[in-house]
């Protein structure tokens, strides 16, 4: 049977949906069959991130009420990666929670891993999900308010007898001062780090456009490698190895950005001889060979006119 993993947080807006989508993509890329479940009934948004909002006809509520709707409710995202949307109209307080649990457990026969994007905070929804999952991934920002709420969520997990969890620090700053990793772990009273994901404006752009999975480059998958290993093997990397993985990604990202911003010595331009060919001109201190040639041609024309 497949394993059910809850992606949870104490505070909203820390990136649970982003982590759920990217982790699912990384697991499916490694050959595992994965189902992404939106567990935020009434406020679903995983469909927007995945870019399939217009493809939703049936949802988890329909499938839990009548299992004949299950295949119609599940949307294929990519090879080995499927999606089960939550209801947009019904809340956790309005649905049959036992039926939902039965639905997800039945799907364990089909998938290797089921990732549930849980609602933020504490309530009926998170309680139902914690009664269903085998272990949790706790997502937090490197901010004191997020860390305190993350610590409270860890307590809630332990109250539901879930002792197997890993922390994901999302949107970690790549420049300037940030909170020390071990200070954050002390606030959370946690031992295991699943991943450190750097702050990246591209994530916001791809999320808004519904193309987040296009961001799952080999470099980004390397950042998620410790989290993938935790899901597959149950073992977490050492803290300093997770930090090294984060630092390597940041170094490559900065180098690529600097290379893109570095002015080239050659630029394309039109030929001054009236043909349609594109030629390269050398840039030197703001002066290009194209500009010098044009000025030389104009000077020659003026001299001929004076004669």
Whole-Å distance between the termini?
Answer: 93 Å
Label the structural class.
Answer: alpha/beta
Strand content: 15-25%
Mean of all residue-level pLDDT scores: 84
Strand order of the largest sheet: 3-4-2-5-1-6-7-8
Question: H/E element string?
Answer: EHEHHHEEHEHEHEHEHHHEEEH
Shape: globular
- Number of E-type strands: 11
Radius of gyration (Å): 26 Å
Assign a percent range to the helix content: 40-55%
Major β-sheet profile: 8 strands, mixed
Helix count equals 12
Low-confidence stretches: none
Protein name: P-loop NTPase
Organism: Veillonella fallax
InterPro entries: P-loop_NTPase, ParA/MinD_ATPase, YlxH/NBP35
Keywords: ATP-binding, Nucleotide-binding
Describe this structure in words.
The structure is a single chain. The protein is α/β, with parallel strands linked by helices. It is built from twelve helices and eleven strands. The strands form two sheets. The chain has an eight-stranded mixed beta sheet with strand order 3-4-2-5-1-6-7-8, with helices on both faces. Helix 1 crosses helix 10 and helix 10 runs antiparallel to helix 11. The protein is globular, with a radius of gyration of 26 Å. The mean pLDDT is 84. Keywords: ATP-binding, Nucleotide-binding. This is P-loop NTPase. It holds the Pfam family ParA.
Present the secondary structure layout:
Blueprint: E1 3-8, H1 16-29, E2 34-38, H2 46-50, H3 60-65, H4 70-73, E3 75-78, E4 81-84, H5 97-107, E5 113-117, H6 124-130, E6 135-140, H7 144-159, E7 165-172, H8 181-188, E8 193-198, H9 201-209, H10 218-233, H11 239-261, E9 266-270, E10 278-284, E11 287-288, H12 289-306
Parallel strand pairs: 1-5, 1-6, 2-4, 2-5, 6-7, 7-8
Antiparallel strand pairs: 3-4, 9-10, 10-11
Keywords: ATP-binding, Nucleotide-binding
Pfam families: ParA (PF10609)
Protein name: P-loop NTPase
């Amino acid at each position: 049977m497949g394993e059910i993993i809850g992606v949870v947080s104490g505070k909203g807006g820390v990136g649970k949906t982003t982590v759920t989508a990217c982790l699912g993509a990384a697991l499916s890329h490694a050959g595992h069959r994965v189902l992404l479940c939106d567990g935020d009934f009434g406020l679903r948004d995983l469909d927007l991130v995945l870019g399939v909002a217009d493809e939703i006809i049936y949802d988890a509520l329909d499938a839990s009420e009548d299992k004949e709707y299950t295949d119609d409710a599940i949307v294929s995202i990519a090879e080995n990666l499927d999606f089960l949307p939550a209801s947009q109209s019904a809340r956790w307080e309005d649905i049959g929670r036992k039926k939902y649990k039965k639905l997800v457990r039945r799907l364990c026969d089909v998938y290797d891993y089921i990732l549930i994007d849980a609602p933020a905070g504490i309530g009926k929804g998170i309680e139902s999900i914690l009664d269903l999952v085998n272990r949790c991934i706790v997502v937090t920002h490197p901010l004191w308010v997020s860390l305190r709420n993350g610590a409270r969520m860890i307590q809630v997990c332990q109250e539901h007898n879930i002792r197997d969890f890993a922390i994901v620090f999302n949107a970690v700053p790549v420049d300037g001062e940030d909170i020390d990793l071990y200070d954050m772990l002390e606030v959370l009273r946690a031992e295991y780090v699943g991943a450190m994901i750097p702050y990246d404006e591209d994530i916001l752009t791809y999320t808004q456009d519904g193309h987040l999975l296009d961001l799952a480059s080999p470099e980004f998958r390397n950042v998620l490698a410790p989290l993938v290993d935790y899901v597959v093997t149950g073992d977490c990397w050492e803290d300093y190895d997770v930090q090294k993985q984060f630092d390597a990604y940041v170094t490559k990202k900065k180098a690529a950005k600097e290379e893109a911003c570095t002015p080239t010595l050659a630029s394309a331009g039109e030929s001054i001889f009236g043909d349609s060919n594109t030629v390269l001109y050398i840039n030197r201190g703001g002066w290009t060979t194209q500009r010098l040639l044009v000025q030389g041609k104009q000077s020659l024309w003026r001299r001929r006119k004076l004669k």
